[in-house]
From TrEMBL:
Species of origin: Aeromonas caviae
Entries under Gene3D superfamilies matching the protein: Umud Fragment, subunit A
Domain called Peptidase S26: residue spans: 8-161
GO MF annotation list: serine-type endopeptidase activity
Any one biological process term the GO annotation gives: signal peptide processing
UniProt protein name: Peptidase S26
Length: 202
């Protein structure tokens, strides 16, 4: 995460949105200025279930929140956008710097941040417990996520940003950003999802 991103991220905000007659679910508007996802406004809705590889908004649990504030990565109380890569009962491993989920390589961790400070390290394999999720933005090399902190409580999720089979839960305002969120490259996505089930957030 660059110094510019560290400073800019404090501008992220969550705003209540009046839904009017357009939609029938409560929505929040999130401004994302981090590297976790393309810069822009996102709408978030409550989740009745969570699937791989949905994009979710989370509030960081302690002691992770305190660590990120102390390092200056992000202000306290600011949500993050992360991809769900592991559900309860799945096996996530870190071997050296390589992260695998169900034996499928998903990316690598960095040893240091952009200021040269050591990043947290865990090693070995863990079975994701009930009430936990493994979150990792595999397409963002310097994302601070499960590759450094392992699984986190599912209760940290405040809403689904990219759902399926519902009213659109992801809206990128084109005046802010004209790109799109990447999804899994075909085969890797299908192999990972084939052994997973959805989970209801705590």
């Amino acid at each position: 995460m660059t110094r510019r991103r560290i400073l800019t991220v404090t501008a992220l905000a969550v705003i209540g949105v009046a839904t009017g007659g357009m939609v029938d679910w409560p929505a929040k508007l999130i401004w994302n200025a981090t590297a976790s996802a393309p810069v822009g406004f996102y709408t978030v809705e409550p989740a009745d279930r969570i699937d791989v590889p949905e994009l979710v908004a989370i509030m960081r649990p302690e002691p992770l929140a305190a660590f990120m504030v102390e390092r200056g990565y992000i202000a306290r109380g600011v949500p993050l956008l992360k991809r769900v890569l592991g559900l309860p009962g799945q096996r996530v491993c870190r071997t050296g710097r390589t992260i695998t989920v169900n034996g499928i390589e998903m990316g690598e961790a960095l040893e240091r941040d952009s200021l040269g400070r050591d990043l947290p390290v865990w090693q070995g394999c863990r079975v994701i417990g009930d009430g936990q999720l493994f979150l990792m933005n595999w397409e963002v090399r310097d994302s601070l996520d499960g590759r450094y902190f392992g699984p986190i409580p599912a209760a940290s999720v405040i809403g689904v940003v990219c759902g399926r089979g519902r009213n659109p839960t992801l809206r990128l305002w084109p005046t802010i950003f004209s790109g799109k969120i990447d999804v899994f490259p075909g085969d890797r996505r299908s192999r990972l999802i084939s052994s997973m089930t959805s989970v209801a957030p705590a």
